[in-house]
Automatic annotation (TrEMBL):
Annotated Formyl transferase N-terminal domain residues: 1-169
A GO CC annotation given for this chain: cytosol
Source organism (scientific name): Streptomyces purpureus
Alphabetical UniProt keywords: Protein biosynthesis, Transferase
Pfam families, A to Z: Formyl_trans_C (PF02911), Formyl_trans_N (PF00551)
Name of the molecule in the record: Methionyl-tRNA formyltransferase
Superkingdom of origin: Bacteria
């Protein structure tokens, strides 16, 4: 098939590479300009550079809604558009232009975790598996019929970075597998159960701020979700920002006020956590490694030279 590809960052790069390695003919690539947004500078392999290396025409757009782009796409005469990590709305006259419509590749197990940053949100929420879905695009974001979907388990110590590497390796087989079904004329695919759907927003600074009213197991997953190269989860100690680089759920149960710097346990320092921590039934968050406001990284047992005082959500 003749394919136009819409994509950005490493997800788009992997999709384009899979298409270039396939039997299909990539006739045009549409991608975004480079961004200074913190999350868009992560996993930033260039779709434009890969396309140009293979002699594929490249169109740069923030939004695909101008007449010139539509004329260029019509001239490319695609059988299908394949999109992955396209960051803005694709209007109906674009996604319905090709003979077979538009196939979107999304890094979650739809219908759950439509929208943005699905791996991070899924890890924070304690999901047991994550994955990649290829679905036909329609008027509702990430809601079209599923053509192919593959999953990987979430390990007890997996970070968002680990899960990125696990899921990005699924892009090629999911994309090529979905296209194989479409190329032979299949048109009946799996409807999404909208009762199971969830939609998540882009992550920002506020989403990585630690709230000590959260249970320790959720905070431990937040720390793993915000693993390098993502911005680290942070709190404040004595009015200064403190990034939490590694932590575990405490073995013991600790009662008191959330945020209290309480007790050394093993290689960590336990912070009281959970809105109902006063009951004494909660585990705490055992912080093991931190980074100070001036960028100094050290074990928590060296940073917290004495117990007492509080970590807070704001300075």
């Amino acid at each position: 098939m003749r394919v136009v590809m819409f994509g950005y960052q490493t997800w788009g790069h992997r999709t384009l590479q899979a298409l270039l390695d396939s039997e299909h003919d990539v006739v045009t690539v549409v991608t975004h300009p480079k961004s200074e947004h913190a999350y868009e500078k992560i996993w930033s392999d260039s779709v434009a550079d890969l396309a140009e290396e293979h002699g594929v025409p490249v169109i740069i757009r923030n939004r695909p809604d101008d007449e010139e782009l539509f004329d260029l796409l019509k001239a490319a005469d695609p059988d299908i558009i394949v999109a992955n990590n396209w960051r803005t709305w694709i209007p109906p006259h674009i996604y319905s232009l090709p003979r077979h419509g538009t196939l979107n590749i999304h890094d979650s197990l739809l219908p759950k975790y439509a929208g943005f940053s699905p791996i991070i949100w899924a890890l924070i929420n304690g999901e047991q598996e994550v994955g990649v879905t290829a679905h036909m695009m329609d008027e509702v974001l990430d809601a079209g019929d599923i053509v192919d979907q593959r999953a990987v388990p979430v390990g007890p110590k997996d970070t968002a970075t680990d899960l990125f590497h696990k899921t990005v390796d699924l892009i090629a087989p999911v994309t090529v597998g979905a296209l194989a079904r479409i190329a032979v004329g299949e048109t009946e695919f799996t409807k999404q159960d909208r009762a199971q759907a969830s939609f998540f927003h882009k992550r920002s600074e506020e989403d990585i701020r630690i709230n000590w009213d959260w249970p320790a197991d959720v905070l431990e997953r937040l720390v793993r979700a915000q693993s390098a190269p993502y911005p680290s989860a942070f709190t404040f100690h004595r009015g200064k920002r403190l990034e939490i680089l590694a932590a575990t759920v405490s073995e013991g149960r600790y009662g008191g006020t959330p945020g209290r710097i309480f007790y050394r346990e093993g290689e960590g320092v336990v912070i009281v956590a959970g809105a109902d921590a006063r009951t004494g039934r909660n585990h705490g968050l055992a912080i093991t490694r931190v980074r100070t406001e001036d960028g100094h990284e050290l074990p928590a047992t060296e940073y917290f030279t004495s117990m007492g005082g509080y970590l807070t959500s704001r300075a």
